[in-house]
Amino acid sequence: MSGGSVNKVMLDSAAIAFLADRGATASYITSVCTGSLVLAAAGLLDGYRAATHWSTRDHLARLGVEVLTERVCIDRNRFSGGGVTGGAVP
């Protein structure tokens, strides 16, 4: 799942259900930037650690994910990146 503005897809129940369905049997689940928010909304990060863009770390944590501050997080078959153009991290 790629990042950017994810508000529309997070409110799209059909898209979230699609991701949850496909993710249930996927060998690997990956995201970049704010895409981890969408994976969390689909339940695909339950019990996993993940990274996201620095500006959305609190939001990802509110979705029940253990958020890491590293640029890349690998937790079993979940790979997430903190942002392609994350810029300076506060």
Can you offer a commentary on this structure?
The chain is α/β, with parallel strands linked by helices and 90 residues long. It is 31% helix and 18% strand. It is built from four helices and five strands, in the order ααβαβαβββ. The strands form two sheets. It has a three-stranded mixed β-sheet, covered by helices on one side. The longest helix is centred in the N-terminal third of the chain and has 11 residues, at 13-23. It starts with 6 loop residues before the first helix and ends in a 9-residue tail after the last strand. The mean pLDDT is 89.
Number of helices: 4
Strand content: 15-25%
Task: Give, in order, the helices and strands.
Answer: HHEHEHEEE
Helix fraction, binned, reads 25-40%
The radius of gyration over CA amounts to: 12 Å
Oligomer: single chain
What's the gist of this structure?
With 90 residues, the chain is α/β, with parallel strands linked by helices. The chain is 31% helix and 18% strand. It has helices at 7-10, 13-23, 35-41, 57-62; strands spanning 29-32, 49-50, 66-67, 72-75, 78-81.
Chain-wise SSE layout:
Elements: H1 7-10, H2 13-23, E1 29-32, H3 35-41, E2 49-50, H4 57-62, E3 66-67, E4 72-75, E5 78-81
Parallel strand pairs: 1-5, 2-3
Antiparallel strand pairs: 4-5
Key structural traits:
two-stranded parallel ribbon, 3-stranded mixed β-sheet, alpha/beta, 90 residues, 31% helix, single chain
